[in-house]
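Backbones bend. We report:
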Amino acid sequence: MSSFLLKKIISLIITLFVATGVIFILIEVVPGDPVAFMMGLSGSTEAADALRIELGLNVGPWARYVDWVWGMVNGNFGISYTYRVPVIELIRERALVSVPLTVYALFLSTAIAIPAGLISASRRGSLVDTSFMGVAQLGVAIPNFWFAILLVLFFSTTLKLFSASGFPGWDAGFLICLKALTLPAISLALPQAAILSRVMRSSALEVMNEDYIRTARAKGLNKNQALLRHGLRNAMIPVLTILGLQFSFLLAGGIIIESVFSLPGLGRLVFQSIVQRDLIVVKSIVTLLVFSVVFITFIVDLLYAAVDPRLREGN
């Protein structure tokens, strides 16, 4: 297990190092000068040069890259060109919206998908199976932003049960904030639940054809008991992969949903920073999102080893 863990940690560090270089290069080649954007048409050359020195843009790309990476290692993400505050403060403020939204959406997705997939697998070919998979296919086909607009029209405009947009802040109370995040979380969760339920069904059906399930059935267990007691653990292996990918997607891909519901999250901050040419914010947030993807993948690999002992033995 220690050898397995060491290999994964080395792979994680190399991946992060390569990712920072790719992100920096891509941001550097994007056309447009952030200083020119900030100064506007009326800015003088002397003022622009002074601002470029203040922001650290007067040195070469390699020096900027080293300073940027070393600063992130020490918890210093730089100063925002637009807001003139530390980038880490902006990220911390917006993450208090995006991370709970992601966790909420992932919880709803898992709570819906796993039972639905198991029920469909245990009743393969029945009306229940056909209905569940038909709804799942519809969920995969519907874009989450369109579904979000429908939720706003029905629950906010018609029934007036939820607020159509905005976030009150956690000082307003946990339940009030949870209510504000409910419609966005549902919008993000249902398409992911549709995908996850189909994976759960396929994995469960594959496991049910294994010899140990037939042995368990021969000992007197019914189909559901054999699946839950002996097959569920192995059936969860591909599901863990999808869960890891979905968490990363929900965290990084919620920009449209955050725009629909006017949520002050990381997605909207990235979009605003791109428009304002606040490149230091864009680089830092994208790097953190990449780190979250790599770290979640690392955790999923460890869960693989926990679920399947053969991985710990190197087989």
User: Anything to note?
Assistant: The chain has a mean pLDDT of 82. The first helix runs from residue 2 to 29. The CA atoms of residues 240 and 300 lie 6 Å apart.
